[in-house]
Design brief:
single chain; 370 residues; alpha/beta; Rossmann fold; 2 domains; seven-stranded parallel sheet; 9% strand; SDR_fam; oxidoreductase activity; Ketoreductase (KR) domain-containing protein; oxidoreductase; NAD(P)-bd_dom_sf
Length: 370
Amino acid sequence: MDNYQQYYQYWPIAAVTLAVVGVSFTLQWVLAEFFPWQNLWKQRNAKLTVTTKSYKGKTVMITGANGAFGSRAAKLFADREVETLILVDVKDCAGVKADIEASYPATLKTKPNILVWQVDMMSYASCQELAKKVRQLKSLDHVLMTAGILSFARRESPEGWETSIQVNYISSALLALLFLPCLKSSPTNPSPPVLTFVTTFGVYPAGPTMSVPKTGSYLKHLSNNKDGMAQAHQYGRSKGLLLYFARELAARVSAAQNKGMRKVTINSADPGSAWTPLTNPNQGKLIPKLIMDFSAREPLTCATALVNGVSAGEDTHGKIVMDYERPSYPPFTVRKSGQAAQQRVWDETRDEFLTKVPELKDIYKVLDGQ
């Protein structure tokens, strides 16, 4: 009887302990799935410098060069002896060029040749026109794809896609494919050229909204959203699609090298978060503001992270670059369901492009191993 009494004396403690352990594991799982706070905290407190001292002789292109990150990244390249710097945006980047040229450091021995080009990423035709200019370049060492939008109200592009999906995913993927044959290292560059997509922690909370429908188009399912919470997740969902595409493209580029494709490094860089004209509308929204206040850092730091990402070595091929680390892909993307979603994204994107951008036919033949 004494043993039973002793047992009953301690079982509430055991129950509470089990409950605490259960809550702890559940909380860790929830955070790992939907809110990578440890990564955000590391980014906020990171002290970054540009790891490459000189870009002498190289050609660098930045899309979204009028943006807070793109314009600062352009300045970082210009200050480090880049030979040719191509600024691309839907808006005229002449102002960015003028600001750069007005602030060259006294120690700069070689001033870059700065080209200002425009592209409307709502339009396939405009992306194709940009690619025609790129094909005239003798070399292209680094392509940093910072162009993107954060749309709080649903709109549709002329191509028939919700605008976040159009700009952040569809047109970014299109430009990457069009640029692929043009990526060639300059004579002074012993490393493969690098094409870097921009990703975000916003992919994590968007994950639960990215399930694949049993029938119909996956891309259209995500694009045919409604205003409200669905639209609030569109930025993260569009970037999730881009992560799937980037990982699949990297794998196919590697497989195609024995078929004559030039070696190219394809990666994704996470710049972290900052208060910029793109994110300022979140100042009036409680949860987004709390997250931003927790994680935001200076835009220049974010730009530095992107410059380092697009300057990274072959070991980052198919990976995510975050400051000085190589984080894993979000949990939902690495599961069997995520692998299936990735294949669906690739196949549906290919069908869209082969219908509307037939010049990609030869590129897809190589990438599909035909």
